[in-house]
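User: Can you fold this complex?
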Amino acid sequence: MILLITGGAGFIGSNFIRYILKHHRNYKVINLDKLTYAGNLENLRDIEKNKRYRFVKGDILKTKGEWLKAKGVDAVINFAAESHVDRSIIDSADFIQTNVVGTQALLEASREAKIKRYIQISTDEVYGSLGRSGYFTEKTPLSPNSPYSASKAGGDLLVRAYCHTHKFPGIIARCSNNYGPYQFPEKFIPLLITNALEGKQLPVYGDGLNVRDWIYVDDHCSAIDAILHKGKIGEVYNIGGNSEKKNIDVVKKIIALISHRSPIIKFVQDRKGHDRRYAIDSTKIRKELGWKPEYDFEKGLDATIDWYIKNKNWWKRIKKGEYKKYYKKMYEEGKGQKANG
Ligand code: NAD
Ligand code: DAU
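Assistant: Here's the predicted assembly.
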């Protein structure tokens, strides 16, 4: 089997490539990635010489059916995306290009090449925000609140339409918040861990009571593997870690685990349009595909902190470059956050 993995130089894509090469010894992987600020070939250093792996620098917007045919691609797994909500609040143009127009280009190329399976890596954020009770199921209406989640919902609707109109072999996977090794330190958990290790302030939006349902990245990878091999064409599968946490409780846990410096919690202005609570009902994938997560939050967080402690060079390099400008814009100038008062 030859898999085309798009966005494989990012956080989840690079973990998934490592997962596939380990668990499917006869599979080959082509990683197509544009290498935006979030794409980093260092994420794949340990496997770059593997004969079953190949990297191609490119944009999903320019994918052609002829190219997929020439490479003998059997299945496409689309991870490529602009993925950070805060950046989509500052400027959403790239989000529409990659997450909507890029998905359409990849779908069209995949259709032309008659690929056997196409998995769209989507997100629980397309469902919007929950109140104190209830869960997102696959039947929850789409109600995206941020430009990021609206662009992901746009991609999902195109996949749905291709399945319906062209009998295209598409499947959509909607997962909750991931954490683990190689996550770009603009996202909450790696931002907290790396700031704590540097003795810097830990920014918490609003009252810190927003809830996310956390899943360790390996568990997301095993779910995608199950969907790739056992998922039904045209279906949606929700994936969640059954691990709801208030943001402030995540901060306190990280402070307790990284105790050698004294990091300070800093409540900052809330994110604009901040979704209050996400929680996934993953009964369908558990029952129909026999998947379940292996990590609870404590085990996953320990493994993640350990990785960031052992890989300081990786994140220190990232935090020097473009990231510095972004951090200033976000946290010092308050872009993407609600105005004072
Ligand atoms: P990421 O930002 O770490 O990585 C995205 C990758 O896509 C980068 O390597 C980037 O270079 C590449 N890319 C961006 N635009 C591209 C383009 N036009 N052509 C080719 N490559 C391009 O993202 P992530 O956190 O690994 O998320 C991967 C996917 O999973 C995304 O689709 C995201 O919406 C989805 N998702 C993420 C989470 C999460 O918690 N991180 C949860 C659920 C779903
Ligand atoms: O639910 C899946 C989604 O999870 C993915 O689709 C997105 O790609 C991914 O970025 C993530 O979105 P969130 O907005 O939930 O994740 P983020 O890590 O940005 O924030 C998690 C929570 O922490 C959220 O309530 C906002 C809050 N937060 C975040 C940052 C960066 C803070 O309080 N302070 C911060 O500095």
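The longest strand covers residues 117-123. Residues 6-7, 9-13, 33-36, 38-39, 59-61, 79-81, 83, 98, 102, 121, 123, 152, 175, 177-178, 184 surround nicotinamide-adenine-dinucleotide (ligand 1) (CB under 6 Å).
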